[in-house]
Amino acid sequence: MSRPSPEHRPSTTSSGRPRRPLPGSGLAKGLAVTLRTMTRKTVTEQYPDAQPELPPRTRGVIGLFEENCTVCMLCARECPDWCIYIDSHKETVPAAAPGGRDRSRNVLDRFAIDFSLCMYCGICIEVCPFDALFWSPEFEYSETDIRDLTHERDKLREWMWTVPAPPALDPGAEEPKELVAAGKTADKLAAQQQTARQEAAQQDAPRATEPHADAQASAADAQASAADQQARAADEQARAAERPTRPMGDSKQQTDQPRTTSDQAQPTSDQPEQEGRS
């Protein structure tokens, strides 16, 4: 049977008395650790030129996903430092269907976290039932004025862009209910947008054909007016052909001239009668 090593020896003797450590054993252990680390090469990261590689669940700063917040006030009530400030108001939402009842909902007005009081316990993130708060590994937000460490909702929303993606699920795991609901909502909105685009295209189609119809109507009017002019010209030509033409000698000037002597010498039919009566 092998003898147990000094590290695995029981702390008591066979008689039940506590075993006394050898004098200087603690110092020897410390020197052994020092000797082991002295032979290793030291690596110093030149911060801030070289950023440290932080684990994804590092507690750096808290980000707010405002769309998921329902102003339930759980985070503010559970915070041990009372460093979360929330203001809201209620508004009435009309009924979606006729005959239904109006609903009231809370609208977020202010969401602020005072990081000068926060102790980064993460209770607010754990108690949030709607996943509106997330940890971000960012830690470079020091300020010269302590009042600037109170981040309002706009600043908290900017921290959401630095939140790392969640780890991948197992191959046989079910898809989260939140993602399923979000996918259904996105598909519904996409269908509504496509329907609206189709309706707008149908409304714009008659408008697009109106200029062509106007051009065709104007061309038809021009052709009709040209045909009328041609008909008028033909009528005028026909009327001109039907009118009797005067000989070249029978002019008004010739009829107005005095009669010749031969015409004066011929007696009229009334002159003999007058001579016989006399």
UniProtKB/TrEMBL annotation:
<keyword id="KW-0479">Metal-binding</keyword>
<comment type="similarity">
    <text>Belongs to the complex I 23 kDa subunit family.</text>
</comment>
<feature type="compositionally biased region" description="Low complexity">
    <location>
        <begin position="190"/>
        <end position="205"/>
    </location>
</feature>
<feature type="compositionally biased region" description="Basic and acidic residues">
    <location>
        <begin position="233"/>
        <end position="245"/>
    </location>
</feature>
<feature type="compositionally biased region" description="Polar residues">
    <location>
        <begin position="251"/>
        <end position="271"/>
    </location>
</feature>
<feature type="binding site">
    <location>
        <position position="121"/>
    </location>
    <ligand>
        <name>[4Fe-4S] cluster 2</name>
    </ligand>
</feature>
<dbReference type="GO" id="GO:0050136">
    <property type="term" value="F:NADH dehydrogenase (quinone) (non-electrogenic) activity"/>
</dbReference>
<feature type="compositionally biased region" description="Basic and acidic residues">
    <location>
        <begin position="1"/>
        <end position="10"/>
    </location>
</feature>
<feature type="domain" description="4Fe-4S ferredoxin-type">
    <location>
        <begin position="109"/>
        <end position="138"/>
    </location>
</feature>
<feature type="region of interest" description="Disordered">
    <location>
        <begin position="1"/>
        <end position="27"/>
    </location>
</feature>
<keyword id="KW-0677">Repeat</keyword>
<comment type="subunit">
    <text>NDH-1 is composed of 14 different subunits. Subunits NuoA, H, J, K, L, M, N constitute the membrane sector of the complex.</text>
</comment>
<feature type="compositionally biased region" description="Low complexity">
    <location>
        <begin position="214"/>
        <end position="232"/>
    </location>
</feature>
<feature type="compositionally biased region" description="Low complexity">
    <location>
        <begin position="11"/>
        <end position="26"/>
    </location>
</feature>
<dbReference type="InterPro" id="IPR017896">
    <property type="entry name" value="4Fe4S_Fe-S-bd"/>
</dbReference>
<keyword id="KW-0830">Ubiquinone</keyword>
<dbReference type="GO" id="GO:0005886">
    <property type="term" value="C:plasma membrane"/>
</dbReference>
<feature type="binding site">
    <location>
        <position position="69"/>
    </location>
    <ligand>
        <name>[4Fe-4S] cluster 1</name>
    </ligand>
</feature>
<keyword id="KW-1278">Translocase</keyword>
<feature type="binding site">
    <location>
        <position position="118"/>
    </location>
    <ligand>
        <name>[4Fe-4S] cluster 2</name>
    </ligand>
</feature>
<feature type="binding site">
    <location>
        <position position="72"/>
    </location>
    <ligand>
        <name>[4Fe-4S] cluster 1</name>
    </ligand>
</feature>
<comment type="function">
    <text>NDH-1 shuttles electrons from NADH, via FMN and iron-sulfur (Fe-S) centers, to quinones in the respiratory chain. The immediate electron acceptor for the enzyme in this species is believed to be ubiquinone. Couples the redox reaction to proton translocation (for every two electrons transferred, four hydrogen ions are translocated across the cytoplasmic membrane), and thus conserves the redox energy in a proton gradient.</text>
</comment>
<dbReference type="GO" id="GO:0048038">
    <property type="term" value="F:quinone binding"/>
</dbReference>
<dbReference type="GO" id="GO:0051539">
    <property type="term" value="F:4 iron, 4 sulfur cluster binding"/>
</dbReference>
<keyword id="KW-1003">Cell membrane</keyword>
<keyword id="KW-0411">Iron-sulfur</keyword>
<feature type="region of interest" description="Disordered">
    <location>
        <begin position="185"/>
        <end position="278"/>
    </location>
</feature>
<keyword id="KW-0004">4Fe-4S</keyword>
<protein>
    <recommendedName>
        <fullName>NADH-quinone oxidoreductase subunit I</fullName>
        <ecNumber>7.1.1.-</ecNumber>
    </recommendedName>
</protein>
<dbReference type="InterPro" id="IPR010226">
    <property type="entry name" value="NADH_quinone_OxRdtase_chainI"/>
</dbReference>
<feature type="binding site">
    <location>
        <position position="128"/>
    </location>
    <ligand>
        <name>[4Fe-4S] cluster 1</name>
    </ligand>
</feature>
<dbReference type="InterPro" id="IPR017900">
    <property type="entry name" value="4Fe4S_Fe_S_CS"/>
</dbReference>
<feature type="domain" description="4Fe-4S ferredoxin-type">
    <location>
        <begin position="60"/>
        <end position="89"/>
    </location>
</feature>
<keyword id="KW-0874">Quinone</keyword>
<keyword id="KW-0520">NAD</keyword>
<feature type="binding site">
    <location>
        <position position="124"/>
    </location>
    <ligand>
        <name>[4Fe-4S] cluster 2</name>
    </ligand>
</feature>
<keyword id="KW-0472">Membrane</keyword>
<dbReference type="GO" id="GO:0005506">
    <property type="term" value="F:iron ion binding"/>
</dbReference>
<feature type="binding site">
    <location>
        <position position="75"/>
    </location>
    <ligand>
        <name>[4Fe-4S] cluster 1</name>
    </ligand>
</feature>
<keyword id="KW-0408">Iron</keyword>
<dbReference type="Pfam" id="PF00037">
    <property type="entry name" value="Fer4"/>
</dbReference>
<feature type="binding site">
    <location>
        <position position="79"/>
    </location>
    <ligand>
        <name>[4Fe-4S] cluster 2</name>
    </ligand>
</feature>
